[in-house]
Design a protein that fits this description.
single chain, 22% strand, 6 strands, alpha+beta, 176 residues
């Protein structure tokens, strides 16, 4: 491993957030308003997900963990502020503790319609968020992707289910 230059490695991180009604604490469709407002500020770093009560964000391709940390912190702060301004909360968890998947609206998109048509209940009931895929690359070529389970990613990032985002802790990395 002595001949590897770590300057060529890059990383990117995605996160999925649940959208919550502050009064009932239930999942709530934001009718893509968070995505629409987010696109004005963070461009293509925010995306709609299959369930309308979920928002996905992704960092740029980052040169090191410090850059990724700052990008994730900015995304969390931005999405949280947008959601709050629209009357919602956002949080991360494996799944919502009491909202039922049967009541969740599906985003009207050809890909999602195809998935729901093909997989039916299996697709509609797959109401999870809080995953934290981390994509490692060498230059611009993907090398490996890791996805931490929601409980682990929330623990690593300092998130609590149903809570507004706290400031993420400083990541701790070790060589492998």
């Amino acid at each position: 491993m002595g001949g590897i230059s770590y300057k060529h490695f890059t990383l990117g991180i995605e996160e999925e957030y649940m959208v919550i009604d502050p009064a009932s604490r239930e999942l709530k469709s934001h009718e893509q308003k968070i995505v629409q407002e987010g696109e004005k500020v963070i461009k293509d770093k925010v995306k709609a997900e299959m369930h309308q009560a979920v928002v996905e964000v992704g960092t740029d391709i980052c040169q090191d963990i410090d850059e990724a940390f700052m990008d994730v912190a900015t995304l969390r702060k931005t999405i949280s502020a947008i959601a709050e301004g629209l009357g919602f909360w956002v949080g991360a968890s494996g799944t919502h503790p009491f909202s039922h998947w049967e009541r969740q609206l599906i985003t009207d998109h050809a890909r999602y319609n195809e998935i729901v048509n093909e997989l039916q209940e299996a697709a509609r009931s797959n109401l999870i968020f809080g995953q934290m895929p981390i994509f490692w690359g060498c230059g611009r070529a993907p090398l490996r992707a890791f996805s931490f389970p929601a409980r682990a990613s929330a623990r690593r990032s300092g998130l609590r289910a149903g809570a507004a985002f706290p400031r993420p802790p400083r990541p701790r990395c070790s060589r492998w």
